[in-house]
Design brief:
The protein is mostly beta strands. Helices cover 0% and strands 46% of the residues. It has no helices and four strands. The strands form two sheets. Strands 1-4 form a two-stranded antiparallel ribbon. Bound molecules: zinc ion.
Length: 68
């Protein structure tokens, strides 16, 4: 039997900016990454935190223990 379970949304640290809210964006021509500019993180929109919702699939099967 397979059931879906929903976990309450939790607030977690943004993994894209490590909670800073700012990322460094380098122009495409800047191969050595020397001319980066700070920009608002598009994932958390500058807050450094994100709301994470989870849905897990649970499989339940009978336990058939063979005792000799
Ligand atoms: Zn972020």
């Amino acid at each position: 039997m397979i059931t879906n379970r929903y976990i309450h949304p939790t607030i977690e640290l943004c993994t894209k900016c490590q909670g800073e809210g700012i990322i460094i964006v380098y122009p495409a021509w800047d191969m050595l990454n020397q001319y980066g500019e700070a920009a608002e993180c598009p994932t958390c929109e500058g807050s450094g935190r994100v709301v994470v919702s989870k849905k897990i699939e649970v499989t339940v099967s009978p336990f058939k223990n063979k005792i000799i």
